[in-house]
Specification:
The protein is built from ten helices and eight strands. By secondary structure, it is an alpha/beta fold.
Length: 232
């Protein structure tokens, strides 16, 4: 059972710092060239058009949550808070639009449970399971059980990704971060980067949109009128 408290001591390393140990063997400098950047951000050919999800942003009230790293339950609690408080002030959830962009160190939340122990996502991305308080071996925000998340003064809350999707919340995940992190993890594990990236992309949860980059999605959502909220 998780509680809605934030410990400021749980600061996270920045994006490049996360990759420092594997940078030499991976040759991250190669990503600096425009051709490499284009290849890294290109979406799989079987995915939807990059901007198709933007057509869903039609609500009276619109919010974008920028999630660059794990931050306890907050990136998933705040969409629910936005919807609940809008409902309380006269605008139901189906008349609101919420976009959650999972980028940088938050990308594992977009992936299925089977990938978590295989690639040690809890250790790599420094996220502890709310139930065990150890490095997570699962995605706790996908199909959570009743009473998994309890907010003091409120009680149990439905903040699983699948539950939020039922409320119309749109989730996106950064393809650029998947490209870089899968390559770094593959190199450290002695695996083929292309194979690992393909497995990560295949493991993206149903309904989550793979976008060229997180910052690309953030810009597009704001162009559609979404207010910006930093959730990392």
């Amino acid at each position: 059972m998780s509680h809605f408290f934030h410990d400021p001591r749980n600061s996270r390393r920045d994006f490049l710092g996360q990759l420092a140990l594997g940078a030499t063997s991976l040759g991250l400098a190669s990503f600096a060239g425009p051709l490499h950047l284009e290849a890294a951000s290109r979406l799989p050919s079987n995915k939807e058009e990059p901007e198709a999800w933007l057509k869903k942003i039609t609500g009276k009230h619109k919010l974008l949550l920028d999630v660059p790293r794990p931050n306890e339950i907050l990136p998933f609690a705040w969409p629910k808070v936005f919807l609940l408080t809008n409902a309380a002030t006269g605008t139901p959830a189906n008349e609101c639009s919420v976009v959650v962009v999972l980028r940088h160190e938050a990308i594992p939340f977009a992936m299925e449970n089977t990938l978590w122990p295989k690639y040690k996502f809890g250790e790599v991305f420094k996220f502890d399971d709310p139930a065990t308080k150890a490095a997570s071996l699962r995605n706790p925000f996908w199909q959570p059980k009743p009473n998994d998340f309890v907010v003091p003064g409120v009680g149990p809350v439905d903040i699983g990704i699948d539950q939020l999707q039922q409320d119309g919340v749109i989730f996106c995940v950064c393809n650029m971060a998947i490209t870089v992190y899968s390559a770094a993890v593959a190199t450290n594990m002695g695996l083929d980067p292309a194979t690992v990236k393909a497995e990560w992309l295949a493991g993206v949860l149903p309904g989550i949109h793979v976008v060229p980059s997180g910052v690309w999605a953030i810009g597009r959502a704001q162009e559609k009128g979404c207010g910006y909220c930093y959730a990392g």
